[in-house]
Amino acid sequence: MARHVILKTFYSSDKWRTFRMNLILERGNKCERCGSNIARSIDIIGHHKIELTPENVQDHSISLNPDQVELICSDCHNMEHKRFGYQYIKEVYLVYGPPLSGKTTLVNEQLQRGDLVVDMDRLYTAVSGLPSYDKPDALFSNVIGIHNQLLDNIKTRLGKWGTAWVIGGYADRHKRLRLADELGAELIYCGATRDECLLRLDGDEEKRFRKDEWRGYIDKWFEQYQE
Questions:
Q1: Of 58, 80, 102, which residue is a domain's last?
Q2: Residue 116: closest CA among 70, 169, 155
Q3: Cβ atoms of 36 and 79 closer than 8 Å
Q4: Mean pLDDT over residues 172-190, rounded?
């Protein structure tokens, strides 16, 4: 069954309609985003904070969980999904910091379905099929080519994504600021001391055979970093 048919079946079900009406009776007819009054209950949209998919729609801890549903107006709903005039409002974040500072973790915590992520480690994995810590030098030209093409797509706002996350070390202040300016990106710094990064490396079993290599990455970043 096609994706839209599965979700349409859920949204037309008695379970969802009863659930949504109970939320309206409990919370009232104000948009929980902008606070505007919504005169007709039919115009109040039950927005799932975790986007529903055919894989999770039957998980009622997501689809029928009051904590996971907002009551919002159509304008806020269109803004959330970047539709009907809002599709040109694209947010870009340049997430930088030393190796093992938590950049990927931070992005994963904020990531929403349909966001664009540009990360050399993930690109190496996609191209090579190897774990993220194993980056063959022979593939660098291919990976950096894909990386640069994705950055160009962000600069021109190509595609239907609403938020883009660019992850990297970017220790050089001049290069970092220039890229942020070219992308129209907000900078997010993941701060960690050299000792904190080394401590995390010591506890990372995945990198146990490559610790000297990663100590070199950490040392190099702190040698080059400019605030």
A1: 80
A2: 155
A3: no
A4: 96
Identity (one letter) of the amino acid at 139? L
Tell whether 104 and 12 lie within a shared domain: no
Phi, psi values for residue 32, rounded to 5°: -80, -5
Q: Are residues 107 and 191 in the same domain?
A: yes
- Residue 220 pLDDT: 96
Q: Which amino acid is at 7?
A: L
Question: By C-alpha distance, which of 100, 98, 102 is closest to 222?
Answer: 98
26: domain CATH number is 3.40.1800
Give the rounded distance of the alpha carbon of 92 from its chain centre: 10
Question: Can you tell me the distance from the alpha carbon of 121 to that of 119, in angstroms, rounded to the nearest whole number?
Answer: 5
Angle between the N-to-C axes of helices 211-224 and 194-202, in degrees from 0 to 180, rounded to the nearest 10: 170
pLDDT bracket for residue 130 (50, 70, 90): very high
The 10s digit of each residue's pLDDT in 188-211 is: 999 999 999 999 999 999 888 889
At residue 88, what are phi and psi to the nearest 5 degrees? -90, -5
Residues 75, 36: Cα–Cα separation, whole Å: 10
Distance separating alpha carbons of residues 198 and 64, to the nearest angstrom = 43
Arithmetic mean of pLDDT over the chain: 92
The long-range contacts involving 211-216, CB below 8 angstroms and separated by at least 24 positions, are: 214/99, 214/100, 214/133
pLDDT at 134: 86
What confidence tier does 98 reach under pLDDT thresholds 50, 70, 90? Answer: very high
Question: Which residue do the tokens 């146990």 mark?
Answer: 208
Q: Are 97 and 72 found together in one domain?
A: no
pLDDT at 83 over 80: no
